[in-house]
Structures are given as structure tokens and as C-alpha cells.
Amino acid sequence: MKKNKIIFWIATGIIFLWEGVLPALTSQTELAKEGIRHLGYPGYFGNALTIFKVLGALALIIPQVPKRLKELAYAGFLFDFIFASISHFAVDGMDFQSFFPLIFIGILALSYNNYRKLNSAG
Q1: Domain that holds residue 72
Q2: Distant-in-sequence, close-in-space partners of 114: CB < 8 Å, separation ≥ 6
Q3: Contact 97, 107 (CB under 8 A)
Q4: What's the domain count of the chain?
Q5: C-alpha separations of 72 from 3, 13, 35, 81 in Å
Q6: Under a CB-based contact definition with an 8 Å cutoff, are residues 10 and 109 in contact?
Q7: For residues 61, 45, 26 and 56, what is the CA-based torsion angle, rounded to 10 degrees?
Q8: Distance between CA atoms of 109 and 90, rounded to whole angstroms?
Q9: Could you tell me how far CA 105 lies from the centroid of its own chain?
């Protein structure tokens, strides 16, 4: 049980920092805006994506959030990572940027798996 909590909080903390804090702090930089444009998306898409990433990260990290909302946040991040990988692959070809989101699917899976274990035990 303690091992599951540790793994859950480390994995969820990484997702929270990468998908919640980082976008909140950097979404309005020229580099971030250029990244969205480079993939062919309109500027407002980056703003909407940032809002949903921050809300999803908060849903994962705050213990009082209802389980159903957490499940939706996990699904949303899974879709985000899958489509980020597809977008990079379509625009840039097979390079590190195309596979990087897939690494985060592994971290997300660790978080989700241990979230489920903690909820079934408690």
C-alpha cells in the first residue's frame, strides 16, 4: 500500500508539473505559440489546451476531486499525449518529438494504475 502511494504521488507529481504548471507558466511565450503554429493549429487552440491541461492536472492532484472527474482527466491526458505524438509525427516525421509524448503515456499509466490500486484497497 505504501509503495503504491509513493509511485502514485511521484508519477502524478510529474504529470502535474509537466501538464499543469509548465503550460500555465509558458503558454504565452513566443516559443509555445510558435510550437502550436508549427503543428498547424490556430493560436486559440493553444489557449484552450492550456486551460484544459491545468484543470486536468488539478483534478489529478487534489484528493477531494470526485473519482469520475479524475477518470475523465486521465482519459483527457491519454488523448492529449496520443494526438500530440500523431501531430508531431505528421509534421516532423519520426524524431524524438514524435515519441516524447509516448513516454508520458507510460508515466500516466503508472499514475492511473496506482490510483486504481489505492481506490480498490481503500
Answers
A1: 2-121
A2: 4, 5, 7, 8, 11
A3: no
A4: 1
A5: 25, 18, 26, 14
A6: no
A7: 0
A8: 24
A9: 8
Quick: pLDDT tens for 2-44. Answer: 999 999 999 999 999 999 999 999 989 999 999 999 999 999 9
Phi-psi region of 41 (alpha: psi -120 to 50; beta: other; left: phi over 0): beta
HEC profile of the chain? CHHHHHHHHHHHHHHHHHHHHHHHHHCCCHHHHHHHHHCCCCHHHHHHHHHHHHHHHHHHHCCCCCHHHHHHHHHHHHHHHHHHHHHHHHHHCCCHHHHHHHHHHHHHHHHHHHHHHHHHHC
Has this prediction a pTM greater than 0.85? Answer: yes
Torsion of CA 100, 109, 72, 83, to 10 degrees: 20
